[in-house]
## 1
Amino acid sequence: MILTQIDAAKPRTKRWWRSPRLVRHGVMLFFFLFLLHVAWEHQVKGGGPNGTPSVEAYCPFGGVESLYQFLTTGGYIRRVEPSAMVLLGAVLLLTLVFSRGFCGWVCPFGSLQEWLGMAGRKIFGRRYNPGGQWERRLRYLKYVVLAAIVGMTWHLGALVFRPYDPFLAFFHLGAGTAEMPFAYAVLAVVLLGSLRYERFFCKYACPLGAVIGIVGKFGLTRVTRSEEGCKSCNLCEKKCFAHIEVGTKDAVREAECNHCLECVAHCPKPNVLSLRGAGWTFSHARYGVLLVAGLLGTIGVSQAVGYWHTKPAAVAFTDAAGKPDPEQIRGWMTLGEIARGYGIPLERLYAGAGLPAKVAAGTRLNQVARTYGLGFEPDRMRTVVASILSGTAAPAPHPAAAPEGGPGKHAEGEEIRGFMTLNEIALKSGVPVEWLTRRLELPAGIDARQPVREWMHANGKSIQDLRQAVADYRARR
Ligand code: SF4
Ligand code: SF4
């Protein structure tokens, strides 16, 4: 109540550093630059225990994708770190208090779209923001996208959206164009679309926005309108990217409202529109400070209790039984680390992988192709190491020996990897899970959503057994 009185008594300030819109864009810029910095460092230093985490560690949607796994097994889907679950919890809690403010103030991908929309207005000389029945129906698409991603991800135990994720593509800074071509195609559509349509991806396709929109319906804060003083100029609706009819409502309850407060900032009459909740009135600055403090405070608490992990704690080269396990190889490992970790002479590793001597031992696997112009696939190193350890020859031909753009097809069965789940293998290979379980004589109760490397050794199986089972099924047909 005291805060309400203080706010009402204050005249609207003209000082630039307290311009309401600048406060929000300052907060947006802070989070955008932070993530850009993380993305840049990740590309330069690589990931792993001694590197910089991937931007995926800072995306709350990873928590949504891993939620089922987390609740049923306490673990995470591959590539999802505990920090994503912390962020999901923080965002949901904050949304219950501050409604959909995460989208309007924090999300770097939402900010990028908004800034592109502002640039688009300058380029095209006008605001292009279609409305109407069809446009409104199209917004339900994001709930379909959410349901499809969550259903598939929870069933397969793998990140099915990753190859199409435009957020990830943008913050890979162009480094993964070959790794995720579809994601870059989606990104191009989103960036171009955002120039013409305000918050293009947010409105129609963002699965995280769909989650936050649903939860935000129960949020405490609302943009409210006082009938008294409103001159029905409709400027609020014109400024709203979501076409919410602010000028005819007492309070905005739409899931689309991201608390950007553009309507409040543009209202020509003071105190007609305001952001309220739990008896408080929030200025831009107060809302921004509380939102940021809430988010950073939750992260701080999770750090204090030791639950904030953005990257793997240690490099492992062995399985749970202490046996050398080539499935532990990751793209951020250097050739030297792999040679040392598995006790393989460097020259032998190079010969097996078909790498020329000019490739430095300190090169990370995922940098070999780009740095040396070779058609080298990091994933192939697992097969090479497995072959060396077992004393057999790696299957020829070596894609590594080919120039970039040369043959890069997997040898028969090589697309089956230890990090995959049985459900994922079944989807990719077309071999039914039941057939694989029967063929491999696996005990009942194997979780088809767990990576196979987590249970295959304990059941006396190897990745070669799985590949052989797939090959046998294909040979029968
Ligand atoms: S809708 Fe999605 S992309 Fe847009 S701001 Fe929200 S979370 Fe970010
Ligand atoms: S109603 Fe106001 S605060 Fe909500 S999205 Fe529209 S302009 Fe932003």
## 2
Amino acid sequence: MAGVTLPIEIHRVPTALYRKPESLRVPGPILSDGINQIYLRDAGEGYLRAARFGWTADRVDPDSYDETVSRAQHDDVRRLVEQRVPAMRRTPSVGGFSAIYDMTPDGHPIVGPVGDIDGFWCDCGWSGNGFASAPAVGAHIAAAITCKTSEVDLSPFAWPRSADATPRPDVSWVRR
Ligand SMILES: Cc1cc2nc3c(=O)[nH]c(=O)nc-3n(C[C@H](O)[C@H](O)[C@H](O)COP(=O)(O)OP(=O)(O)OC[C@H]3O[C@@H](n4cnc5c(N)ncnc54)[C@H](O)[C@@H]3O)c2cc1C
């Protein structure tokens, strides 16, 4: 509507659902396994959800994409999660779903005024990583919009980026 084109692609990411093994006590709200690149957390009583860290390029049309999880994707997630939690080896799979990420070229969000349109601000392109930081970014972008002082410099997330911006680490970041 504003006539601004943003470099955001929509990519599909699978999440697998399992019945929770009786022997498993998830320690805390989430088990985030950097070595095996997988996370596991409760999905309602008696169920767990699991997915890989990061993303793999799987560009789709956000208005029409396959929301299911294939057998190969299921096997991939289970192989990783059972390396951390052996009790997951035989627990029944109860399906899953695919959702979408708003990917930018470097995996970083676009935050701040974009283009020459007075009053047009962006806070988007979080590339599958925008939930945790949302309250802080919301507070700081609100301060910037209302010309108040903000303790955090959001300029690294301006678009276009500065030439020395580095991409967000890829899925192998823990091993490097
Ligand atoms: C499967 C999955 C797992 C994730 N896990 C994590 C995680 O562990 N940690 C993390 O930090 N991030 C995670 N994320 C990413 C995080 O959820 C997103 O980065 C974040 O929700 C993006 O926030 P947003 O406000 O930009 O967009 P959204 O949360 O999508 O909010 C946009 C809102 O705008 C509304 N809207 C759209 N169009 C219109 C319109 N025309 N008029 C009015 N309203 C409209 C939508 O209904 C929606 O409510 C995950 C994402 C997915 C898909």
